[in-house]
Amino acid sequence: MTTGAWKGHINGILYGIQFDPALDDTVVNRVADGVVGGMYPGDRAVTLDAVNEALRSSGPLNDVMETPHSEESIRDFLGKLAAALAARA
User: Fold this and answer.
1) How far is the C-alpha of 73 from the C-alpha of 76, rounded, in Å?
2) N or C: which terminal CB in the chain sees fewer CB atoms within 10 Å?
3) What is the pLDDT of residues 60-73, one digit of tens each?
4) What confidence tens digit (pLDDT) does each residue in 17-76 have?
5) What's the CA dihedral at 6, 51, 78, 69 to 10 degrees?
6) Distance separating alpha carbons of residues 14 and 67, to the nearest angstrom
7) d(C-alpha 81, C-alpha 87), whole Å
8) Rounded CA gap, 33 and 80, in Å?
9) Dihedral of the CA atoms 33, 38, 44, 49 (nearest 10)?
């Protein structure tokens, strides 16, 4: 998956969590359910691939879609989201 492709998926996820004060398990499950339910572009496998590509990236993840969350909290959230998406296989 190209950088532009995974960035688009990640930006969509960040857009959906930008107003959540904490990126807790409730938010993880809401986003994972939304991915499985078709509320985000791409299916579960495509989104999981995008999340894993993002986590392997050394660059900032919120450089286009800024959120009040730190880079560390976004990466932690995406790690939990990847696990949640993998569990829904």
Assistant:
1) 5
2) C
3) 998 877 789 999 99
4) 999 999 999 999 999 999 999 998 889 999 999 999 999 999 999 887 778 999 999 999
5) 0
6) 7
7) 10
8) 13
9) -110
Return d(Cα 77, Cα 24) in angstroms, integer.
8
∠ Cα 61 30 62 (to 5°): 10
Q: What is the pTM of this model?
A: 0.93
Whole-number Cα distances in Å, 65 to 1, 14, 53, 60: 19, 7, 17, 11
Neighbours of 19 (CB within 10 A): 8
- At residue 8, what is the residue type? G
Q: Which residues are CB-contacts of 50 (< 8 A; sequence separation ≥ 6)?
A: 1, 5, 6, 8, 9, 10, 42
